[in-house]
């Protein structure tokens, strides 16, 4: 019995010892786990990663390149909307090519902070830009972008007259014809300014959705300079249709020449700067084909041109024109509908100053071939500018429509200003 008791006691002691040891291990394991997580082997890995990140950061350039338009852009500007800039560094290389590989010339600025193409871009073209820059430590950065410029279908342009650098008469308006119908006239007109060195107020007038003319209240001041600025790049003229023009045009106003055609007296009196310089006998439209009345502006000049009656509605029963003259001399256009002031070599010399015989034009005595400088028509042609005013009166016809040619002067100032969208 005593031996059995001793045996049980030893067994209990062994179990207690084992339990204590196991408890210690469990406690130690629990503490070790928490300790490792907080600052043991995992903490050592994070420190190593931080060192790796720090080393990588030291190798990364601080230069920040920005390409405009952004990558993937559509309907991008073809003018000066394309740029490459860099912050915290200097540009070292920029290349720009079309999708087909054609290089685009460009230039890095003197401070090496920006780049832009030297010429206007093409419409509906995809371009790719690759840029490289270096920071103050010489570490390089790269950026790439691809974009597509606005297509003809999604853009509009304005064809304007007069031409840059030209000298024109005092009646010459700035006339802009857009190749797309403009629905947001106010936005487009806001992007166009016309000013004169004379200080005259200049106002735009919309004749329709495609045509916008500018003029002052009275004729331009002789000798002044007129400036047209088109700042239409990116301007939305209609839904999904944007402007692409950014251009400045200047032209000079010549001497003030106004010629008055009196169909009743059958004469034309030419004044320059308010003084009569010549009176020429004329033959205006016949009683059956009277000439429009009103203020008309010479819009084109031709030493010789063809005039076919069928193109302006004068036809015979066989459908051919009532006249077809292939060499009309010294012709100057006064309307879009076919009104001219021109030389006439086929009529008798006696008609000029005595009878109106034309189909609506104003005729001056001339010779075939347009080579005789001594004829009235040759003199008037030589002394006339695009933009000179020809006032026609006493014909019995109606006043010419203001949009028939460059003839907006036939609207009074209040009516002209009423057509402005500004």
TrEMBL record:
Signal peptide positions on this chain: 1-30
Superkingdom assignment: Bacteria
Keyword Signal in record: yes
Any one Gene Ontology BP term: cell wall organization
Ranges of Basic and acidic residues composition bias in the record: 51-61
A single GO molecular function term of this UniProt record: peptidoglycan L,D-transpeptidase activity
Domain L,D-TPase catalytic residue range list: 257-393
InterPro entries in the cross-refs: Big_10 (IPR041280), LD-transpeptidase (IPR050979), LD_TPept_cat_dom (IPR005490), Transpep_catalytic_dom (IPR038063)
Pathway given in the UniProt record: Cell wall biogenesis; peptidoglycan biosynthesis; Glycan biosynthesis
Ribosomal protein keyword on record: no
Region (Disordered) residue spans: 35-61
GO CC annotations on file: extracellular region
UniProt-listed Pfam families: Big_10 (PF17964), YkuD (PF03734)
Record's keyword terms, sorted: Acyltransferase, Cell membrane, Cell shape, Cell wall biogenesis/degradation, Lipoprotein, Membrane, Palmitate, Peptidoglycan synthesis, Signal, Transferase
Active site residues per record: 342, 361
CDD domains to which the protein is assigned, alphabetical: LDT_IgD_like_2, YkuD_like
PANTHER family: L,D-TRANSPEPTIDASE, L,D-TRANSPEPTIDASE YCIB-RELATED
Record protein name field: L,D-TPase catalytic domain-containing protein
């Amino acid at each position: 019995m005593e031996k059995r008791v001793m045996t049980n006691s030893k067994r209990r002691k062994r179990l207690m010892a084992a339990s204590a040891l196991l408890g210690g291990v469990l406690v130690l394991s629990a503490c070790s786990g928490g300790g490792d997580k907080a600052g043991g082997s995992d903490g050592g890995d994070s420190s190593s990663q931080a060192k790796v990140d720090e080393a990588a950061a030291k190798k990364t350039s601080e230069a920040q390149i920005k390409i405009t338009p952004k990558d993937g852009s559509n309907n991008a500007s073809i003018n000066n909307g394309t740029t490459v800039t860099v912050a915290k560094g200097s540009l070292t290389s920029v290349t720009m090519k079309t999708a087909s590989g054609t290089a685009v010339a460009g230039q890095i600025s003197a401070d090496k902070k920006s780049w832009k193409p030297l010429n206007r871009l093409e419409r509906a073209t995809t371009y790719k830009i690759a840029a490289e820059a270096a920071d103050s430590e010489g570490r390089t950065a790269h950026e790439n972008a691809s974009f597509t410029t606005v297509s003809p279908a999604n853009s509009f342009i304005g064809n304007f007259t007069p031409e840059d650098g030209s000298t024109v008469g005092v009646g010459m308006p700035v006339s802009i014809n857009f190749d797309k119908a403009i629905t947001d006239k106010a936005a487009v007109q806001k992007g166009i300014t016309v000013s004169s060195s004379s200080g005259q107020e200049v106002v735009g007038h919309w004749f329709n959705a495609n045509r916008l003319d500018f003029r002052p209240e009275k004729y331009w001041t002789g000798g002044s300079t007129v400036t047209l600025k088109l700042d239409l790049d990116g301007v939305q003229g209609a839904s999904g249709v944007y402007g692409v023009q950014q251009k400045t045009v200047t032209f000079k106003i010549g001497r003030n020449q106004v010629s008055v055609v009196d169909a009743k007296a059958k004469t034309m009196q030419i004044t320059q700067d308010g003084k009569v310089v010549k009176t020429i006998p004329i033959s205006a439209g016949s009683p059956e084909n009277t000439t429009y009345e009103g203020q008309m502006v010479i819009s084109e000049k031709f030493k010789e041109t063809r005039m076919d009656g069928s193109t302006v509605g004068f036809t015979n029963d066989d459908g051919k024109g009532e006249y077809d003259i292939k060499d009309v001399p010294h012709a100057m256009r006064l309307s879009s509908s076919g009104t001219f002031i021109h030389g006439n070599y086929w009529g008798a010399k006696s008609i000029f100053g005595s009878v109106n015989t034309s189909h609506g034009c104003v005729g001056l005595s001339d010779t075939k071939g347009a080579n005789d400088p001594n004829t009235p028509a040759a003199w008037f042609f030589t002394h006339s500018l695009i933009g000179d005013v020809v006032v026609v009166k006493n014909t019995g016809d109606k006043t010419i429509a203001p949009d028939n040619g460059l003839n907006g002067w036939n609207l009074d100032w209040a009516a002209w200003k009423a057509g402005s969208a500004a």
